[in-house]
Specification:
It is built from 7 helices and 9 strands; from the N terminus they run E-H-E-E-E-H-E-E-H-E-H-E-H-H-E-H. The chain has one domain: P-loop containing nucleotide triphosphate hydrolases (Rossmann fold). By secondary structure, the chain is an alpha/beta fold. The two termini are 18 Å apart. The strands form 2 sheets. A 5-stranded parallel beta sheet has the order 2-7-1-8-9.
């Protein structure tokens, strides 16, 4: 069974998670969140099976060998993320569309595998400086990890035009409203 996929990608700290959470809260009858698998350690308050499927690196590599992922990537050195086929199948079987909060490379891979079924949305931060302030403000990363995230963000921002839609997250409320209209238009268009 094939359903629809809504892909939100952006550099870390651009606001995609907030936008996705708002969409899920107001449209849980139509959308369900694709929980990614990751080899990283859970952050404070994160729950396995809700925020991510936290799995060991060896198990992750085993799943790659068994072709259990639609897409995967070593996002940061030694840290893998991926989308399990079983996760997408689970959501489609429930009659809902899948919504993703995924890094830029993963988003592009999903869109290339599902060109007709997927809508890819890039969330643009107001500026690289604001993005850096947000990441530092989180207080969840070491200085080394922050430098890695900043370098990755600079590369990812150059990929925005490869997505179907770009949402400029200057004002969060406006960005959420724009995202909602774009997603609903896509889902309604697909029904016809």
């Amino acid at each position: 069974m094939k359903g629809k996929l809504i892909i939100f990608s952006a550099p870390s700290g651009a606001g995609k998670t907030t936008i996705v959470n708002r969409l899920l809260a107001s449209h849980n009858d139509k959308l369900a969140f694709s929980i990614s698998a990751s080899t990283r350690e859970p952050r404070l308050g994160e729950v396995d099976g809700r925020d991510y499927y936290f799995i060991g690196k060896e198990d992750f590599l085993h799943k790659i060998a068994n072709q259990e992922f639609i897409e995967f990537e070593e996002v940061y050195s030694g840290t893998f993320y991926g989308t399990l086929k079983s996760e997408v199948d689970r959501i489609w079987a429930s009659g809902k569309s899948v919504i993703f909060d995924i890094d830029v490379v993963g988003g592009q891979r999903l869109k290339s595998k599902f060109p007709e079924e997927a809508l890819s949305i890039f969330v643009n931060p107001p500026s690289l400086e604001v993005l850096k302030e947000r990441l530092i403000g989180r207080g969840t990363d070491s200085e080394e990890k922050l430098k890695e995230r900043f370098a990755k963000a600079e590369i990812e921002l150059k990929e925005a035009d490869k997505f179907d839609v770009i949402i400029n997250n200057i004002d969060l409320e406006e960005a959420c409203q724009e995202a909602e209209q774009i997603v609903l238009d896509f889902l309604n268009k697909c029904k016809k």
